[in-house]
Amino acid sequence: NMSKYHFLRQFEHIVGHSPVEYRNNIRLEHAAELLREEKLSVEQVSSMVGYTTASYFSVAFKQKFEISS
């Protein structure tokens, strides 16, 4: 029973990231695992973890891990 804005502030205070950043970190960690362990293309992995385009996924991946996918 709290407002959206109160939830967002509490979430960020407790977790240290916004809900969107938290979700994106989980997606990218899962993607890194898939790329290491599976013989899947970048396009397949980006789709599996919820990115609409492989190019947007590649940019996000490079920003997080400071390497290209």
What report would you give on this structure?
The chain has 69 residues and is an all-alpha fold. It has helices at residues 4-15, 19-37, 42-48, 54-65. The longest helix is centred in the middle third of the chain and has 19 residues, at 19-37. 10% of the residues are buried.
SSE pattern, N- to C-terminal: HHHH
Radius of gyration from the CA trace? Answer: 14 Å
Query: Any low-confidence stretches, pLDDT <50, length ≥5?
Result: none
By DSSP (H or I, 4+ residues per run), the number of helices equals: 4
Q: How many strands?
A: 0
Structural class: mainly alpha
| Percent range of helical residues | over 70%
Global mean pLDDT? 94
The percentage of residues in β strands lies in: under 5%
* Terminal residue distance: 41 Å
Major β-sheet, in short? none
Using the alpha-carbon principal axes, give the shape: elongated
